[in-house]
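Hypothesis: this fold can be encoded by more than one sequence.
Test: take the C-alpha cells below, design a sequence, compare later.
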C-alpha cells in the first residue's frame, strides 16, 4: 500500500481531514458512489475514518463496512469511532495490501485520496479487483491526480473500465476476466 507515515505526520493529516470534512462533508462525495442498503463496502486506505459513519448508515444493519489501512493509528482511530458512535456493521483491517476478504465479496470499494501515495498501485488494484463482486464498483477520488492521469492509470488497464464520472468521483466497473477457450 502506501509507505507508513510517522505517528506525528498521521495526526497532522487526521486534523487536516477533520477541518476539510467540516467544509465539505463526506456525504457529498458518497452521493456519487450509489451505495445501497445491504452493500458490503471496502474503504481502502480509510485513514482516520472520515467516510465510515456515513457509509455505515447508508449500508444499514444488513450491510457491512470494511475499513482498511496500513497505519495502526488509523485502525485504532476507526475502532474508537466505531465504539463511540455504536457502529456494529464496521470491521477494521490492518494491512499494507491484502484485505483477507474472499473473492467476489464486496459490492463497492473506495480508493479515496490514497492512490498517489501507494507504493505498489498495481498490486492494490489487483486486490480490489479480486474482492469486488462481478457487478462491483470501484469508487475513485484523488485530488492529486488530473482526469487524464486517472483514466490512464485506472481506466485504461485490464481490470477496470469507467462507468461514470461525477463531479468529485470516478466510478469504475470491474472488468470480468475472459477465460481462455478450451481446445478439444
Amino acid at each position: 500500500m502506501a509507505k507508513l507515515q510517522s505517528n506525528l505526520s498521521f495526526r497532522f493529516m487526521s486534523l487536516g481531514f477533520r477541518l476539510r470534512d467540516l467544509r465539505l462533508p463526506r456525504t457529498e462525495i458518497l452521493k456519487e458512489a450509489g451505495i445501497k442498503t445491504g452493500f458490503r463496502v471496502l474503504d481502502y486506505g480509510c485513514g482516520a475514518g472520515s467516510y465510515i459513519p456515513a457509509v455505515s448508515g447508508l449500508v444499514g444493519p444488513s450491510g457491512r463496512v470494511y475499513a482498511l489501512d496500513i497505519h495502526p493509528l488509523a485502525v485504532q482511530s476507526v475502532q474508537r469511532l466505531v465504539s463511540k458512535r455504536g457502529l456494529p456493521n464496521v470491521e477494521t483491517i490492518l494491512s499494507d495490501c491484502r484485505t483477507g476478504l474472499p473473492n467476489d465479496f464486496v459490492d463497492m470499494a473506495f480508493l479515496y485520496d490514497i492512490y498517489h501515495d501507494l507504493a505498489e498501485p498495481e498490486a492494490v488494484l489487483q486486490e480490489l479487483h479480486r474482492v469486488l463482486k462481478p457487478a462491483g464498483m470501484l469508487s475513485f477520488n484523488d485530488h492529486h491526480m488530473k482526469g487524464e492521469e486517472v483514466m490512464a492509470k485506472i481506466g485504461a488497464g485490464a481490470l477496470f473500465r469507467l462507468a461514470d464520472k461525477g463531479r468529485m468521483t470516478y466510478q469504475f466497473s470491474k472488468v470480468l476476466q475472459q477465460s481462455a477457450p478450451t481446445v478439444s
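Residues 7-23 form the longest helix (17 residues). Strands lie at 40-44, 64-69, 90-94, 106-112, 132-141, 160-165, 170-174.
Hypothesis status: open.
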